[in-house]
Amino acid sequence: MLKLYTIKIKTELLLRIFKNEKFFWDLKQTDYIVEKLNDLVILNEEIESAYNKASNELKFADNVAFSKQSASQRNKFIQVLNKELKRYDENNEMQIVLKRRFHLIRTNFKQQVKIGNDLDFLSKVYSNELLCVNKYDELLSQINLPLSLCRALLKQRDIVQARIHLIERGEPIVAAL
């Protein structure tokens, strides 16, 4: 009888340990998702800022119109991503912990997404959009993402990817507006 009781206690103990490991795994995955969502928000903010600056500096009307349209579209992306981020990080605990990391990421993205003049406008847009698609794919590759987050990410990634395909085909980018 004592042996059976000991086995039952060990089984219960193992179940508790397994549940706690699963809980910690879920926390680690949630932290990773919050981190990657923040990266996407920062990237979209920097691309929006680059498009806004470019619309003031560019001379060709088509490029200016495209920049303004893209900046407003990025603003909408940011709003959707921030809503999804609030679902994961309700207490803003990760925001405090990762503040320095976000500053470094923002600085890195700022250097990458800078748009210069009308001559290299299309190539910079292409490289920015490609960088963005890669970041979306990185987050979408995670297992057990909520459906609402997957939908939002896929919708945004598809819009950006459609723009990339227009540039690759050599079609005028204003036609996409």
What gross morphology would you assign? globular
CATH architecture: Up-down Bundle
- Terminal Cα span: 77 Å
Query: Largest sheet, if any?
Result: none
Q: Return the string of H and E elements.
A: HHHHHH
Question: CATH first level: which class?
Answer: Mainly Alpha
What fraction, in percent, of the residue positions are helical? over 70%
- Structurally, how many domains make up the residues? 1
Query: Looking at this structure, what is the CATH superfamily?
Result: Ferritin, core subunit, four-helix bundle
Keywords: Coiled coil
Coiled coil: 37-64
Protein name: DUF2383 domain-containing protein
Features:
single chain, 177 residues, mainly alpha, Ferritin, 6 helices, globular
Characterize the structure shown:
By secondary structure, the chain is mostly helical. It has a single domain (28-176), classed as Ferritin, core subunit, four-helix bundle (Ferritin, Up-down Bundle). It has helices spanning 2-57, 61-88, 93-97, 99-112, 121-140, 147-169. It is globular, with a radius of gyration of 22 Å. The protein starts with a helix and ends in an 8-residue tail after the last helix.
Outline of this structure?
The protein is an all-alpha fold. It contains six helices and no strands. InterPro entries: Ferritin-like.
